[in-house]
Structures are given as structure tokens and as C-alpha cells.
Q: What sequence folds into this?
């Protein structure tokens, strides 16, 4: 029972590079979200999706793109990495009407 | 001002002590209140949730909500070293189209000293 799987676990990027953080869940959850966690800031919502083909912006969406072509996958794209995007990124999923969100193990991203 | 404020800690207490963790919020639309526990270098895991004022108990853990004061608490009785973690409060405006958008506190790092 894999739950929410994020890849890669660690990544170092140079300023200006692009990359995609992968998130997959095998629980058939309709809701999926991306958060970033920074010291002293807690978890902040980047983008979220309530189903395949539907996405919307959260609190800190600038510099990130998402798409949701399948229920299982919700990739997060960094268009042109900046040092301010150095953070730990978490993907979460849940059923509609459920207060329990399942989180992945996180991706630690460093932009130099 | 942040929508959710949480005592940052860190907090260190001896094993067996009662621990009190707290959050305040400003958005009256929040209806659902959760506590997540996050071990070092892991993702958060839901510990407890509640949606009404009053207390909810689960073993050694009690979640308390006071909507009139916009204040929530998590109490841990008979604290154990395994309770050492960061505790995050989280809030949502509703379950139907709200649980995908959680608003978190900054987290309190708790250490239980054997």
C-alpha cells in the first residue's frame, strides 16, 4: 500500500533551471495539493486540484505550474528555479468530505 | 497578520508531563480543526480532528476548540519520548471543497526528555 509517493527525495538545481516534482497516489483520491514548508513559515499551499482536469492556485503559486491529467498524478513544475524556491515540498491527497489528508515524504529542493 | 498563529516553541518537557500546544486564528470561516504530527524528515500525519467547540479525546490526546475565542489546543497526557515531533495545527473552511486547502500554523517542535 504505497499511499502518496513523491520523487525525487532530494534535488539540487542551478538558478534558471527547470524541473518537475512528481507526485502519485494509489488511493483514488480526488483531491490533491502541493505545499512548501519553510522554517518559521509552516506549510503553505502552492496549487491544488479537486479532480482530473481541474486545478487552482493556492497562497504562493508564483513560479510554479501544475496540471492534472489523471486522478493518480499531480506533478509540480518549476519553470525557472530561483534560490527563494529552496524548500521542502509536500504533496497531499484526500477524499472529498474527508478531513484526513495523506502526505508524501517530501522533496528537499535546493536552488544554488 | 497570519490567519493561523501557533506558539513556535521549541518546547522541552520531562517524560510523563502534560503538554499543552495552542493555536489562534482570525478567519471566522474556519469550521474544521486538525492537529498533524510530523517526525523529523517525514511528511505530516493526521493526529486528530474536530469541528465543534468543546473537547475531543483519543487516548492520551485531547483536542479542544473554543470558537468564540478562536483558540484551539492539543493536550498530551503522560507524554512519552515517542511523542517528540513537530505538531502542526491546521484549519479548513469545509469538507466538500475545503479539505484540499488546509491553512497551517508554523508548528511547535516538542521534545520529551526521558
A:
Amino acid at each position: 500500500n504505497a499511499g502518496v509517493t513523491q520523487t525525487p527525495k532530494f534535488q539540487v538545481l542551478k538558478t534558471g533551471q527547470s524541473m518537475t516534482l512528481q507526485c502519485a497516489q494509489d488511493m483514488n483520491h480526488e483531491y490533491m495539493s502541493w505545499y512548501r514548508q519553510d522554517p518559521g513559515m509552516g506549510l503553505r499551499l502552492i496549487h491544488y486540484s479537486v479532480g482530473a482536469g481541474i486545478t487552482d492556485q493556492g497562497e504562493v503559486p508564483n513560479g510554479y505550474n501544475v496540471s492534472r491529467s489523471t486522478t493518480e498524478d499531480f506533478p509540480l513544475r518549476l519553470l525557472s528555479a530561483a534560490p527563494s524556491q529552496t524548500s521542502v515540498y509536500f504533496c497531499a491527497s484526500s477524499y472529498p468530505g474527508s478531513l484526513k489528508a495523506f502526505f508524501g515524504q517530501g522533496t528537499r529542493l535546493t536552488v544554488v | 497578520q497570519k490567519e493561523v498563529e501557533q506558539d513556535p516553541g521549541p518546547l522541552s518537557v520531562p517524560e510523563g508531563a502534560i503538554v499543552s500546544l495552542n493555536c489562534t486564528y482570525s478567519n471566522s470561516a474556519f469550521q474544521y480543526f486538525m492537529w498533524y504530527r510530523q517526525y523529523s524528515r517525514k511528511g505530516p500525519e493526521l493526529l486528530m480532528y474536530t469541528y465543534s467547540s468543546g473537547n475531543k479525546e483519543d487516548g492520551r490526546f485531547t483536542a479542544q476548540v473554543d470558537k468564540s475565542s478562536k483558540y484551539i489546543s492539543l493536550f498530551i497526557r503522560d507524554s512519552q519520548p515517542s511523542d517528540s515531533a513537530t505538531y502542526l495545527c491546521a484549519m479548513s473552511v469545509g469538507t466538500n471543497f475545503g479539505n484540499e486547502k488546509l491553512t497551517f500554523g508554523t508548528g511547535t517542535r516538542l521534545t520529551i526528555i526521558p
Remarks:
- Chain B is about 0% helix and 55% strand.
